Amino acid sequence: MLRLAARRLLKVVPLLLLVSVIAFGLLSMVPGDPAVQIAGEFATEEQIAEVRSDLGLDRPWIVQYGDWLGNAIQGDLGTSPFSGVSVSTQIWQRLPTTLSLLGWALALSVLIGIPAGTIAGWRQGSVVDRVLTMGTSVGVAIPVFVSALVLALVVGLKLSWLPATGYVGFSESPVDWARHLFLPAVALALTGAAEIARQTRAGIIQVKNEDYVRTAKASGLMTRQVLGRHTLKNAMIPVVTVVGLQISRLFGLSVLVEQIFNIPGIGSRLVTAVFENDVPYIQGTVLLVGIAIVAVNVAVDVSYGYFNPRVRAA
Amino acid sequence: MSIVDAPIGATAAVVLPGESRRARFWRRFKRQRAAMVAAGFLIVVALAAIFAPLIAPKDPIEQSLSDSFANPSSDYWLGADRLGRDTLSRLIYGARYSLLAAAQAVAVAVVLGVPLGLLAGFARGWFDSVASLVADAVLSIPAIILALAIVGVLGPNLTNAMIAIGIVYAPRLFRVVRGAAISVREETYIDAARASGVGTLRIARGHVLPNVMSPLIVQISLALGFAVLAEAAVSFLGLGVQPPDASWGVMLGQATAQLEDHPVLVLAPGIAIVLTVLAFNVLGDGLNDSLGREIREA
Amino acid sequence: MKHGRTAKVLVILAALALVAAGCGDSDDGDSADTAAPGTTEVAETTAAETTEGGEATGTTATETTGGEASGERGGTLIWGLGSNGANFFDPHMATNPFGRSWMYPFYDRLTQIDQDGAVQPMLATSWEFAEDASTLTFELRDDVVFHDGTPFDAEAAKANLDRARTQETGAGTFVDLLAVESVEVVGPTTVQLNLSTPASALPAILSDQAGMMISPAAFENPDLATMPVGSGPFVATEFRVDEVMLAEANEDYWDPELPRVDNLELRYILDPTTRLNATASGEIHGGTLDVGQFSRADAEDLGLVLTDRFSTALFQLFLNTERVPALANPAVRRAIAMAVDQEGINTALYNEECAPNDQVFGDGWYPHNPDIDSDYLPFDPEMARQILEEEGATDVEFTAITANIPSFVAQAEALQAQLAEVGVTMNVAPTPIPELISGFLVNRTADAYWTLNPGAPDPAKLVSTVWLPQSPFNPGAYEIPGILELHQQAQAATTEDERATVYHEMAQLLADEQLSIAVCTPASIMAHSADVTNVQLLSTLSDVDVSAIEVQG
Amino acid sequence: MGSTTRSAARSGRPDITTPVLQVDDLAVEFVTEVGWLNVIDGVSFDVRERETLGLIGESGCGKSVTAQAVMGLIATPPGRVTRGSIRLDGRELLDLDEHEMRDVRGRQVAMVFQEPMTSINPAFTVGQQITEILRRHLGLSRRAARERAIDLLARVGIPAPSQRVDDYPHQLSGGMRQRALIAMALSCEPRLLIADEPTTALDVTVQAQVLELLAGLQDELGMSVLLVTHDLGVVAETCDRVVVMYAGEVVETSEATPLFAHPKHPYTAALLECLPGLRVDEALRPIPGLVPPRYSLPPGCLFHPRCRYAVEACAAERPPLSETGVGRCVRCIRAEELELPGVGS
């Protein structure tokens, strides 16, 4: 098992390097020059050039990238040109908020998605299956920012069951923390659960036709054992992969959801950063998220060992 | 033996002797009613897009400020937006942009993803590892952020937005095609073809591509759904279709604040997007089942 | 079995319609609301107030009495602000024209402007111009201490004014103080400004960023941009970028009446829908109402109270007369102005909150010329087309950039359609906000620029930014005949009446020239909960001075 | 492989009182894209106490479906039992609901399948899969079940069972896995073991060992066996009685020895002629044509288009399954008159 994990980790190094190149390279080409922002409308051409050199933007690309990567490895992602606040601290302050939101959204997605997919797969062709399948198709089809706004408006404001905006830290009051995160998590979980359900259903359908499931049935085991143990454990490999993919997808979507629910996470800051052209913050976030997603994929690969003993021995 | 109309659901796939692959596909596809309905709906939307000038009651760009936010009436079937433009006409013309956008994005994804995937899956070796590395890297960055960055670099207009979405989706197609190519490569008949001196390229085109087609067609259908959603997101941030034209995403973006007072302005594009994406997904599932693996009779 | 799936699909579609019926849209269309990064006057997107809302409902926090503050201090005030920007706590460096609301609670100014627009004492108890208008001398308070303990005296005032005068990049305070040659300390609480040219606007201008007093000890402090050190009623405690600024009351503030709350939270909420929802749900006490998106009724439906005030702002189409030669002809510009249906735009796009206006100074502001009403250039497409034919400008085409925010794009689209009616083709190019300044001002690659100018504490500043040949917002360096002389005259006029007559003449000149096509003047509106009183709005659009706000319950 | 039928040499004569398994007029249909398809029609046979009954026929003749029907493993959809009865020790299984049927499966009737490689769950150890059944049916404690599992592995001839019990399936060879599956099936000492082509996937040497094992366990546990196979060699080796199926129908039933010596149905005779091992001197004579698919069956006797002895009447109407002597029946109108060549011992 360890050898498998080690080999997988080795493969990660070039991947992370490439993610950093994309994160840095792409975003440094975004037009809209921060130097102009800082110099202000009255500045002359020379003054703007002077500010640009202070920010080190006039150095060749490779030098800027090397400098940035060198610092990034030590955890310093540079500073936002406007507020002079280090990007790492900004991200560090906002990380727990986004992780809470994603944690909730993922938990809901898994808790709704896997059971729904299992039932639909196990009772393939039944009315339940067709309703769930159509439901997941619809779930995937609704744009997240549409469901988020509806939830915020209808449940949040009109019915005011749950707060429509804002965020309360877990340390301050766990109850409020949960209440504030519930609606945005549901908005995200709608598509997350749909995607996971579809994959679980496909996995269950494929596994339930396997010979060893027939053997289990022939041995008179209860459905709980046949489905719960024998079928589910083998169906989990594709499902775990999808859950891994969901994390990257949910983060992308959380950018908009954080904006709508005014949750001070990494995502909502990203929207303002894009509009302010705060390139260092965008680069830092994209790099950090890239690393997180790569780590998740490694974890998913390693988890295959648990589900499939043959892999463990490899 | 009476042939009672069989219930839909988990039917055992039957291989009728002498049936061509295409005929078998149609026999199965006809029975997928949801997929047929979805295909029908998409055809209607496509026709509406093509013949928009004939169908649309009004010119989508013509404004009349006095009718700002007019409620649905005989004159404005679906009401009017903030500038007094007819929502129904904009919805019909919007279909053009949304479908065009989806087609453009998928075209880019196919051009980028398929050949590379085929080559990587078939040739393996260093090319495969490098290409897979790039694909994994692109997949590691959330789609929306990558699309925003690319649009930022290329400049905000519909084509650039669709190129961005195409680039973002390409790795997914790459992996599907590569996976299918690898599985086909292992088949014995490929070795047989190679043994009889058939060139690698002809094998790729002759043997590998047809087998890759069925999963690819399914993925393309799902990609079209994804592209419509992505276009809505990008246009919503004002970086997609340029005024005065409007896609469904743009209409949705402009109407968000009026959700409470004029829900129809949000509802019309919202439902259009959801139904179209749903149709693409259901069509994808239908294709998947019809093109799926043939189970030899026991 | 037969109908099986088809029926089911139809049922699903119906159910779907219900689900979708509830579908709203994503977050507010103009998710960028303002985020006016950089210095352009990209408005807070708030097109506020109707004209008749001239008088201010809040009391003035002038002089020392602090108006009818009720009782002792208490509670925490949480306010939502829709904009942030570069270095927004260093008044000389901050480039965001909507950053004032962030700074007023922490920095006292030499002077302040009351709700009627008159300049009142603040750190300066009194001021006077020399006979020959060659100097301006300020008498300062002697009981003011900065947050870091440094006492405020003439030396500190000189240090601040010199810093403001010499800071080339950033807020542009050096342009405001161009007339100041040098600053002399003539007494412990007296400072004298030696003027190279007459500058009667100075007292008003020094009520803004140019007149903010920073503790000299903090000048070199690197994080001054995120931790203000002034002498204002609140002391900053913690700042989280793009999220919140926490502050507590300044116990030894010189005005015993202020502040009226123990703690202050300035929250950055970019998106107007989210901001309104936050106010309605009680998460924050109040914030700017974005009238481009919501009507007064929307706010009142949610049980909120509105405080509004006239503003010095103006929605206008800036033109680059050099890139588009046809626009160098004033007659053509006037024809374009006549093609614009200001009333139609006001009702459709601003919920009747943006008063049609043909001159550059909004109604309620003293430079406003009463003889020029909104029909000076009447909405008359026929006549406009006629003039264009006479001037031989039948195929005018140009591209206007604007912020890629739905409300701005909609306004530009309205203009586009109305101009098309008279044969003028205006293409609209929504552009990410960071590129607007470089596009129109720096690289000058844009023909025209549709935006909102938030206004200024004094007309002189407005004129120097837009209508002088060397003004940044006049990239075509168009020379309006007589504009420089009038500008000098205004600077020389010492009393407000004299200045008013000069500006009325200038208003007439600019109305004829239409160097930037004026459309309407929005008013500033704050939507807040009922238990918040004494909300002081500034003359610049959607800026609020929270120092005097009081929270009941 | 000797041609003598093993059964004669076995010790006790099979008890002919009430049969362990009675299948009567069983019919099963599957839904396919072309509609409901009848797969087996009117299948009847019994399995007596301690007897091994061979169910033989070419692949696709419905023998596996019959075996699965007995175990109640036909999933609905796509399949369903439309007619007939299946009685185990006189108890009608078709009347049992799913819950009751679960108590029967693995406890009174067990099944072993063809593909050892895929019929055992790769994600659990062999021990876990055996103890699970023991605990489910016999309610043994965890420790007792484990001991019994080790004992079972030993009895099926797996070396070092106390280590093997914690092995994962991929660590065992094909033969070993089939032995483990047998251990699983026999863990609760069932009345009847259904073996669906148990040795087809194994190579010949292992095949013989597994058959030897099955016979040994049958004697030891006094268990009846329903052996489903297409390999006449295996039948000759192990079966007491034989049922021959063709295109979803039973065409002949008989004791093993008389069947090989004097087959009554032309199809049985033709099958015997195909056996290479049994005839040294004569060339093999394959049966012309193909087994008719169930959705396009010929009129009359289903075998008549391929039958050398077919006459006009054969195509007229479906011949019934009629008695021809003690415990023998055949579905051929010319059975009495034909003298079909058998396989001499």
Essential attributes:
heterotetramer; B: 298 residues; mainly alpha; 69% helix; 0% strand; disordered N terminus; disordered C terminus; C: 553 residues; alpha+beta; seven-stranded mixed β-sheet; six-stranded mixed β-sheet; 27% helix
Offer a quick outline of the entry.
The complex is a heterotetramer of chains A (314), B (298), C (553) and D (345). With 298 residues, chain B is mainly alpha-helical.
Structure description:
The complex is a heterotetramer of chains A (314), B (298), C (553) and D (345). By secondary structure, chain A is mainly α. Chain A has helices at 2-28, 34-39, 45-54, 61-73, 87-122, 127-141, 144-158, 174-208, 211-218, 223-260, 266-276, 279-307, 309-313. Chain D is 30% helix and 21% strand. In chain D, the strands form 2 sheets. Chain D has an 8-stranded mixed sheet, sandwiched between helices. In chain D, strands 2-1-4-5 form a 4-stranded antiparallel sheet, covered by helices on one side. In chain D, helix 4 (126-138) packs across helix 5. Chain D starts with 5 loop residues before the first helix and ends in a 15-residue tail after the last strand. The longest helix of chain D is centred in the middle third of the chain and has 18 residues, at 204-221. The interface between A and D is medium-sized, with 24 and 30 residues.
In this structure, how is the largest beta sheet of chain D organized?
8 strands, mixed
| Coarse structural class of chain D | alpha/beta
* Spatial order of the strands forming the largest sheet of chain D: 6-7-8-3-9-10-12-11
Distance between the termini of chain D: 12 Å
CATH-derived topology of the largest domain in chain D: Rossmann fold
CATH class categorisation of the largest domain in chain D: Alpha Beta
Low-confidence stretches of chain D: 1-14
Helix fraction of chain C, binned, reads: 25-40%
Number of strands of chain C: 23
- Provide the residue-averaged pLDDT of chain D: 84
The total of beta strands of chain D comes to: 12
CATH architecture of the largest domain in chain D, by name, is 3-Layer(aba) Sandwich
Strand order of the largest sheet of chain C: 8-9-10-1-11-19-12
Oligomer: heterotetramer
Largest interface: A-C, 65 and 68 residues
What best-fitting shape of chain C do the alpha-carbon axes yield? globular
Instruction: Please bin the fraction of helical residues of chain D.
Output: 25-40%
Number of alpha- plus pi-helical segments of chain C:
15
